[in-house]
Amino acid sequence: MPNKSAPSMQDVYTKPGHLFRRMQQIAVAIFMEECAALDLTPVQYAALVAIRDDPGIDATRLSALVAFDRSTLGNVLERLEAKDLIVRRPTPDDKRIKVLHMTAKGQRLLAKAMPAVDRAQERMMAPLAPSERKTMMALLAKLVHLNNGVSRAPLRIEHGKARRTAAAPRRRALNGTASEQTHA
Amino acid sequence: MPNKSAPSMQDVYTKPGHLFRRMQQIAVAIFMEECAALDLTPVQYAALVAIRDDPGIDATRLSALVAFDRSTLGNVLERLEAKDLIVRRPTPDDKRIKVLHMTAKGQRLLAKAMPAVDRAQERMMAPLAPSERKTMMALLAKLVHLNNGVSRAPLRIEHGKARRTAAAPRRRALNGTASEQTHA
DNA sequence: TCGTTATTGACAGCATACTGATAGACTGCA
DNA sequence: TGCAGTCTATCAGTATGCTGTCAATAACGA
């Protein structure tokens, strides 16, 4: 009988946790290589896209849209503002909130980033055949969707786009739990 | 014609980079939940396993075995030592090196961690059917394998287990590049 | 043997993540 | 109306991950 009394590195190498960590390392490295000239991180890119999609959004709602931890996002936005890619403005209707808008510089950078980001996505999947990529992405999407809500930063998409205004009272319950799935 | 002039969040959601980041978030969250009582992170767990597998290894070689960045590993080892799970000792033959050994406390913790780690791995794959899990893991392993060398911390396994001794001069070229694959 | 090159551990600095706490602002309900 | 509970941004603390640098040490080649 083989010795099963203790885990070895050979076991670790085949475990999902190890492989997901490695793949994340690789994905970030490739992204950073492609975007080196733009001084843009994956997280910053996603935040910019979301802000451009939804101008006037506030930081807490943004964190739900891009599935970032709220505490982390504060620093990310600070850096984006320091680089003049976005602006944060307080609002008269709700003094707790600072709404986010892209600057012209941010728009230009995002346009330039697009091809670089696409190249990065291509490169990380390059080792797989086209049919394998499809399978991989379908399974990965399923895994992420059905595990949404596990981490501190689950993805939460506001349906009906009735974003908060002075007239429309804000929807409650932004604090989703693990059992609550955003898309059914 | 649809407007393809700019990326939207809907595009980002389906990109590999986004999904890998989300999955890593989820995997770490699940691991930490299962190991909360043990005060052990995924990275610390892998380091412990590797040190137990290969007592007397030094930090640089360890970083290659577990695919950690060398700079990060220093802090990880510091914390493991502070928790009395490992010891770092200088050697007379090479004054640059500090060799690593597990303590009895580390052994005990590792034994206790095993079932928790297994539960974590189960949980993160739980949403997939057994056949889907197999497919996913095979593709993920392939992707990581063939992209090994891309990040700053590629996996490098020493073949022939001729670890350095006073008699045997150390193998050169630990500085692998992206083109160099560890296993053919 | 002696100078060049490599290796090692340690740092400083930046960016992403998460936990938990806090102060101020707002809402809804009694 | 007034207060309890909620929501916002922010902060301190911890951990990972990367870039780049440094001094001490070791190996190698001329």
Tags for this entry?
homodimer; 184 residues; mainly alpha; 7 helices; 5% strand; globular; disordered C terminus; DNA-binding
Oligomer description: homodimer
Beta fraction of chain A: 5-15%
> Radius of gyration of chain A, rounded?
20 Å
Q: Order of strands across the biggest sheet of chain A?
A: 1-2
Low-confidence stretches of chain A: 160-184
Mean model confidence by pLDDT of chain A: 85
**Secondary-structure element sequence of chain A?**
HHHHHEEHH
Instruction: Give the termini separation of chain A.
Output: 46 Å
> What overall form of chain A do the CA principal axes indicate?
globular
Measured as a percent range, the helix fraction of chain A is 40-55%
> What is the strand tally of chain A?
2
Structural class of chain A: mainly alpha
Helix count of chain A equals 7
- Could you give a short account of the major beta sheet of chain A? 2 strands, antiparallel
**Largest chain interface and its two residue counts?**
A-B, 65 and 65 residues
